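Workshop exercise sheet. Pairs work together: one partner reads the sequence aloud, the other fills in the structure field after running the prediction. Swap roles for the next sheet.
Pair: D.N. / O.F.
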Amino acid sequence: MSQKPSLANATVIGTFWVYLSSYSGKFLFFISTIILARLLSKDDFGVAGYALLLISFIQFPDLGLATALIYFKKDSKLTNTAFWLSLLTGFSLGLFTFLIAPLAGMFFSDDRAVGVTRVLALYFPLASLGSIQEALFIKDLAFKNKILPQVAEASSRGISAIVLAWFGFGAWSIVISQIIGTAIQTSIWWLMSSWRPTLEFSTTLAKPLLSYGLRIIGGNILATTLLNTDYLCIGYFLNAAALGVYTLAFRIPELVIMQFCTILGNVLFPIYAKIQDDPEAMNKALLITVRYVTVITFPIGVGLMLVAEPLVLTTFGQKWVEAIPVMQIIPFYATLRSITYHYGSVYKSQGKPELVIHLNLFLVIFTVPVLWYATSHYGTIVAVAQAQAVLAFLGVIVQSVVVSNLLNIQYYRIAESLRPGIIGSIVMIFPVLASLQFLQGFMPIIQLTVSVLVGAVVYALALWWLQREIVNHGIKTFQNVRAKR
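Structure field:
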């Protein structure tokens, strides 16, 4: 009886600390993005995007060894083995990226992609040096220790990018700042962690580590393909400026929706791993997670779609007006993905990371040709965003069926978990539209501020009136956590 409250508390506390660490850093970096949007051109964002896009496909400097370390029981020899494997992988990927950089220039038909890709190759050895220290903190659910490294990484990255952009470094300001931020974050992980590697390596232990880690990586590479095929298509068929606009349009939905889901997934995996042998607890945990995630993400997604125009004009300026129609679609895509984003934590905690591979492979088969056709045939970033939204809806259906069968949960129970967020968001739409209509002619910042306040108040009242048990349960959970602490 004591286990369930402790797990609920661990989830809330863990989410709070990871949220604080990630969003403190992300907010600082977002502020820097707003400034960079005024200092850099669309072309600059696109050229930097070439390298960041290529890196994203191999952005796994430890081959999933950190995740494997969280899954397996604590063992000093296992930890040392994971570290040396991670370090070897990081340096190998760095060298590999440096050598294949010319292919980036050929693919995007832009020689500028070669240099920025080669510089970003430094990311891999730098990141691999600190991945095991971070994993050890996560394994112990010591999420508050993530605050300093992540805030330092984001703030140093943002500040250095602004300084470099101010002095005219263009796209290089984004690339170089990425390396600076990673180096600082890794240094802080080493300063904070008391663990130090020893010259200990076990080929026997390396095998299960690599087996589990490579299955994780297989799924992650396919997931990255799902997330980045649109960028690839835009970079290939259109140009750097179009890629820059599309990339910037993703910034806010990524910050407030996708980042939230990533944070929750990081918190839930070690917690799910602790209850992997309790089917009833797993089922309840999944349904509660779906309900509370969508209660948060649905109104945010709908709100972003409604206020896209004043939001873009206020944050990025008139120069980025082309991002508005994309911003009216991408939040819908991000909201749909939020429903299933944490399902991967369920698969991994059940010792079935290969399900991530199979699912993502199935979805990639549909995603690549659809986005390729949308970009080549229609030739607009809006068409690409629309295709992404349709594909995200397909992904929700497929993944919900799989997780239901894995945990023996009836489909309708997952659908019921979505109801509070859906109802409250629908009720919110009309007052927000009315406020935007009433404020036509006012400054964008006034339209944005008033509409956001109206939407927040209406949604809160709707949730309280129609789904009061959700609010009461949430308040009680936080009170329990506070009392325990």
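Discussion prompt: The chain has 21 helices and no strands. What would you look at next?
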